[in-house]
Amino acid sequence: MIYNVGSINIDHVYRVPHLVRPGETLSSRSYRQVLGGKGANQTIAIARAGADVAHIGAIGHQDAWVTQALATAGAHIDDIAHCQDLLSGHAIIQVDDAAENSIVLFHGANGAMPLDTVTTPLSRGTASDWLLVQNECAHLKEALEQAHHQGMSIAFNPAPMTAEVARLSLDGVSLLFVNEGEAIDLLAAREGVDDAQVRSDCATPEALMARLHRHFPSCACVLTLGSKGALYSDGHVQLSREAYKVNAVDTTAAGDTFVGYFMAATVRGATPQQALEEAVAAAALCVQLEGASSSIPARKEVVALLEATR
Question: Where is the Carbohydrate kinase PfkB domain positioned along the sequence (predicted)?
């Protein structure tokens, strides 16, 4: 079982010709309200990839409808708290004609849920289970500690990156997911230097990965590179996978789709190379559709793409 302590947001998505500039008022071409949040997206990706996943999180009691998408995908939703005195998290998302996005996030219940919302479900965890966690929910430190106490394997996607995350002890983390920007921010904070210094020192993704391993020698790292693909390294073996060349429409949930599919493949017993290939294929399908959770592909689509390109 994968226990995902993750955010649940109501996404307000606006399609715009370009990302709004300071002082500019811009009319949107369309508007949609959909389920989002890094946590919810990753849970749906895991479920659609065929793995067993329980979502741990919180919403405002008036928004019970948002859990239906998680349940429909196949996730367990019994550990989602419906809070009477909190508003659900939400995000204002702009998506432009180049498929780039800009997001304003309100944490709501994600950032204010009671501690036992996290610790009680994790107390059921065993050494055969995984914790997956991002940085959009309260009680991150406690979730990591509880999972470590239960003997669970831990996967961490420290997004959004903050100074608090950089100060966390990640000794119990088995698998770290970061994109290039997050990796640079994490290293800069750990080393007390600015981002420009890390960028100058690490001119290639391989150099960036090597520097990550100096800080996290016992942790396997996955470095996502957007249109350039992804790297995996456990300190001994380094693997890479190029991205598919596709017409990207919306990149909002690409990273979350990648993480979810990599996790699902890992718990199924796939090799890191197989997990990398499946995750890159899933992300390629995701970016060709609009939306966050709605753009995450089913595993049969991913398998079909892999078979067609072998």
Answer: 5-298
